[in-house]
Design a protein that fits this description.
The complex is a heterodimer of chains A (331) and B (341). Chain A has 331 residues and is an alpha/beta fold. In chain A, a hairpin with a 2-residue loop joins strand 9 and strand 10. Chain B is 32% helix and 24% strand. Chain B has 11 helices and 12 strands. Classes of the chains: A alpha/beta (331), B alpha/beta (341). The interface between A and B is large, with 45 and 44 residues.
C-alpha cells in the first residue's frame, strides 16, 4: 500500500540555556491513507513536538528540525519553501489543537475563522465560502448554524469550540488531520461526543488522522495503530491489539499496569514505574528508560536498542524484549 | 417537600450517627450574581450546590464524581468552611460546622485537611518545602521545638516517598508528582482524621498518578484516614473509593457502594457517564455499548425545571419536566434520584 505520510529519522532539538534538548530524537513512522495512528506518551516525551515538526511549526529559535525527512504524498515537507508550506497547512493537512480556548482567534467571528481558510486555499466566492461554512457547521453537529456563524469564540462552550476547530480542519477536505490532545480539556461525556464525531467524519471522508494523546483509553477505542514514545523516541509500535495485549517494551507494559481500569475487579494494587522521566538535556548513550526499568542489564547502559521486529507490524526497542510480557510480570 | 428532606437526611444508607464522621444535610450554596457598579443589586444566583445530602463513615473513602461545574468542588469547599453555605448543615464528629465561630472552628481545622488539584499553584513559590510542611504545625502549635519540628518534616517527606533533603528546596525545583507529594505531606503534618482530596491526582501523568494513588492508599491504611475523594476520573474513583456519589448540576443523582454503582448504574446520567469512559483495551472497547448523550451541561444560573438532567435524558417522560425526582433508596444502600428506574 502506498503511504500518505512517511517520517524518517526525524530529529528536532531546542537550544536552551540549560543545554540542547533532544525533544524528538530520530523517529520513524508512516501513515496510510484513511488510517488512524496514535502517538502516546507522557508529558515531555516529544509527542507534540513531533506533530508540530510535520507542519514545520517549531518556533525557531530556540527550536530546529536538525535531521530526517517527512515525505507527504511524495514530497519532502522539509525541503519546501515557506510559501509552499503554507499551501500544505490547512489545505492538505488539517490541525486540531488541544486548547479550544486559545486556538481560535477571539476577535474573529466563527464565520470568518472558517471562511479564511477556504478563501486562502480554494477558489471560492464570498457566497460560496459562506455556504460551505454553513455546511461545515452542520457536519460537525452545531445547531442553528446561521446564528452561530455570527457569534464569537467566547459565546461558545468548550465542546462547541472544539467542534468549530474540527470544522476548520475539515474545511478544505485535507488528506491528513493531526489532532494534538483534541479532547483533553473536555468533560468525559463531551469527549465521547467529539471523538465519535472525529471518527465518523474521518471514516466518511477517508481522511487519515494522527491522534496525539496521553489517554490510553482513547487510543484503545479509536486508533488502528499505536506508536509509544519515551524521551523523544518511539520505543514500541504496532496495532492497538498488539500493543495492549502483547506489550514488548517494559515502558509500555508499565504504562498499561499503571492505569486503573473500571472493568476489572477492585482491590488490586496498581504497579507504577518508579522514578521520573529523564532530563532530555542529559541523555547518555544508553537506553533512556534504563534507570526505571526492571529488565535492565549492563548492555542497556552502553547502547540504545533499535526498533526490531517482534512479529509482523509490531516493533520494539528493547534488548530484553523477549522477556517482557504480562506473564513474566506476575512471576 | 418535607418528606423529601427527611428522606435525604439519611441518604447513603447508614443510620445517622452510627460511625459517621461527616454528615452533610440539605447543603445549598447559591452564589449571587450582581449587576451595576454603583448601586449593585443581585440579579440571579448560581446554584452551585442545590440540596445535597450524604454521609461519610469513619475510615471510608467516599468518591464524589461529576463533570466540570457540577458542584463537587464547591461541596468540598463548604465542608472546609472556605465558603459560607447558603443553607444546610455540615456535621463533623457531632458538631455542626456552619454554627461554629472562627475560634471554635480552629481546632477542628487540624482534623480536616485538604489536598488540592494543581500542584503548581497550591504551594507558595517563595517558601522552602520544609517551611511549607512545617507551617500547619506552627499554626496549630503542634510541635513547638524547632529541632523536633525539623525532624518531623523529614519524617513526613520520607513517608511521602521524598528525600528529606528536599526540605531545603523550593517548589519550582520539583516535578508535578513531587509537588503533589509535598501537598500530601503538608496535609498529614497535623495528623488529620479527614482529608478532602480535590482532584488530587488529575494533573499527573499516568505513571506518576499511579504512584500517588498508591501513596494515598498506603496512608489511608496506616493512619486510618477518611477521604472525600473529589474527581472527574471514574477509573481512579473506581479504584480508590468504597462508595461513590454522582453529581450533576448541583444535585447528587446517585449514590451507592462502588461495585454496585459500576455494575448496576441506575440513573441514566451515571450510565451515560460510565459508557463515555474509554477502557484501555481495544478488544473490550470494540465489544462495548457506547450510548453518547447529546447536548451539554446547562447553566446552573438557570437550571432546567424538574429533574435537572431531563433535557439530555434518553428516558425522560413528561413528568420529569415538572418535579425534581425524590432521592430514594431502591436497594439497600443504593440511592437514586430518578422516577424511571
Amino acid at each position: 500500500m502506498t503511504k500518505l505520510l512517511e517520517i524518517k529519522d526525524l530529529k528536532t532539538q531546542f537550544y536552551t540555556s540549560a543545554g540542547v534538548v533532544k525533544a524528538v530524537d530520530g523517529i520513524t513512522y508512516d501513515v496510510a491513507p484513511g488510517e488512524t495512528v496514535a502517538v502516546v506518551g507522557e508529558s515531555g516525551c516529544g509527542k507534540s513536538v513531533s506533530a508540530m515538526s510535520i507542519l514545520r511549526l517549531i518556533p525557531n529559535p530556540p527550536g530546529k528540525i536538525v535531521g530526517g525527512s517527512i515525505l507527504f504524498d511524495g514530497k519532502d515537507l522539509l525541503k519546501l519553501t515557506e510559501e509552499q508550506m503554507r499551501q500544505v497547512r490547512g489545505r492538505d493537512i488539517g490541525m486540531i489543537f488541544q486548547e479550544p480556548m486559545t486556538s481560535l482567534n477571539p476577535v474573529l467571528s466563527i464565520e470568518r475563522q472558517l471562511t479564511e481558510t477556504l478563501e486562502e486555499h480554494l477558489d471560492v466566492t464570498k457566497e460560496g465560502a459562506h455556504k460551505r461554512a454553513l455546511e461545515l457547521l452542520g457536519l460537525v453537529g452545531i445547531s442553528e448554524p446561521e446564528r452561530r456563524l455570527k457569534q464569537y469564540p467566547h459565546h461558545l462552550s468548550g465542546g462547541m469550540r472544539q467542534r468549530v476547530m474540527i470544522a476548520m480542519a475539515l474545511a478544505c477536505e485535507p488528506k491528513l488531520i493531526i489532532a494534538d490532545e483534541p479532547t483533553t480539556a473536555l468533560d468525559v461525556t463531551i469527549q465521547a461526543q467529539i471523538l465519535e464525531l472525529m471518527k465518523e467524519l474521518t471514516r466518511k471522508m477517508g481522511v487519515a488522522m494522527i491522534i496525539i494523546t496521553h489517554n490510553l483509553g482513547v487510543v484503545a477505542r479509536y486508533a488502528d495503530r499505536v506508536n509509544v514514545m519515551y524521551a523523544g523516541r518511539i520505543i514500541e509500535s504496532g496495532t492497538a491489539e498488539q500493543i495492549y495485549h502483547n506489550p514488548k517494551h517494559p515502558y509500555t507494559l508499565a504504562l498499561l499496569r499503571s492505569v486503573p481500569r473500571m472493568d476489572q475487579k477492585r482491590g488490586a494494587k496498581l504497579l507504577p514505574v518508579d522514578g521520573q522521566p529523564p532530563d532530555l538535556t542529559k541523555l547518555d548513550d544508553g537506553c533512556a528508560f534504563r534507570p526505571r526499568c526492571t529488565f535492565a542489564t549492563d548492555k542497556c547502559a552502553h547502547s540504545k536498542p533499535t526498533l526490531d521486529p517482534v512479529e509482523t507490524g509490531h516493533i520494539s526497542a528493547c534488548f530484553e524484549k523477549d522477556r517482557v510480557g504480562f506473564v513474566e510480570a506476575v512471576a | 417537600m418535607n418528606e423529601i428532606s427527611t428522606a435525604t437526611v439519611n441518604a447513603g444508607g447508614a443510620v445517622a450517627g452510627s460511625g459517621d464522621l461527616v454528615q452533610v444535610k440539605n447543603l445549598k450554596m447559591h452564589f449571587p450574581i450582581s449587576e451595576g457598579a454603583i448601586i449593585s443589586r443581585v440579579v440571579a444566583h448560581v446554584k452551585a450546590v442545590d440540596d445535597v445530602s450524604f454521609n461519610i463513615r469513619k475510615g471510608e473513602t467516599l468518591g464524589l464524581v461529576g463533570e466540570s461545574g457540577c458542584g463537587k468542588t464547591t461541596t468540598g469547599r463548604c465542608i472546609l468552611q472556605l465558603e459560607k453555605a447558603t443553607s444546610g448543615e455540615i456535621w463533623f464528629d457531632g458538631k455542626d460546622l456552619n454554627e461554629l465561630s472562627k475560634a471554635e472552628m480552629r481546632p477542628l481545622r487540624q482534623r480536616i485537611q485538604v489536598i488540592f488539584q494543581d500542584p503548581y499553584s497550591s504551594l507558595n513559590p517563595r517558601m522552602k518545602i520544609g517551611e511549607i510542611i512545617a507551617e500547619p504545625m506552627m499554626v496549630h502549635n503542634i510541635i513547638a521545638d524547632p529541632k523536633k519540628r525539623e525532624d518531623r518534616v523529614h519524617e513526613l517527606l520520607q513517608l511521602c516517598g521524598l528525600n528529606p533533603k528536599f526540605a531545603d528546596r523550593y517548589p519550582h525545583e520539583m516535578s508535578g508528582g513531587q509537588r503533589q507529594r509535598v501537598g500530601i505531606a503538608r496535609a498529614l503534618a497535623v495528623e488529620p482524621e479527614f482529608i478532602i482530596c480535590d482532584e488530587a491526582v488529575s494533573a499527573l501523568d499516568v505513571s506518576i498518578q499511579a504512584q500517588v494513588i498508591n501513596l494515598l492508599e498506603d496512608l489511608r491504611d496506616r493512619f486510618e484516614l477518611t477521604y472525600l475523594f473529589i474527581s472527574h476520573d471514574l477509573s481512579v474513583v473506581h479504584h480508590l473509593c468504597h462508595r461513590v456519589a454522582v453529581m450533576y448540576l448541583g444535585h447528587i443523582v446517585e449514590l451507592a457502594e462502588t461495585d454496585e454503582l459500576f455494575d448496576n448504574p441506575l440513573h441514566p446520567y451515571t450510565t451515560a457517564l460510565l459508557e463515555a469512559v474509554p477502557i484501555p483495551d481495544p478488544t473490550v472497547e470494540k465489544a462495548r455499548v457506547h450510548t453518547i448523550i447529546k447536548g451539554e451541561i446547562p447553566s446552573p444560573i438557570n437550571p432546567p425545571s424538574g429533574c435537572v438532567f431531563h433535557p439530555r435524558c434518553p428516558k425522560a417522560v413528561a413528568g420529569c419536566k415538572v418535579n425534581m425526582p425524590e432521592f430514594r433508596e431502591v436497594r439497600p444502600g443504593h440511592w437514586v434520584a430518578c422516577t424511571e428506574v
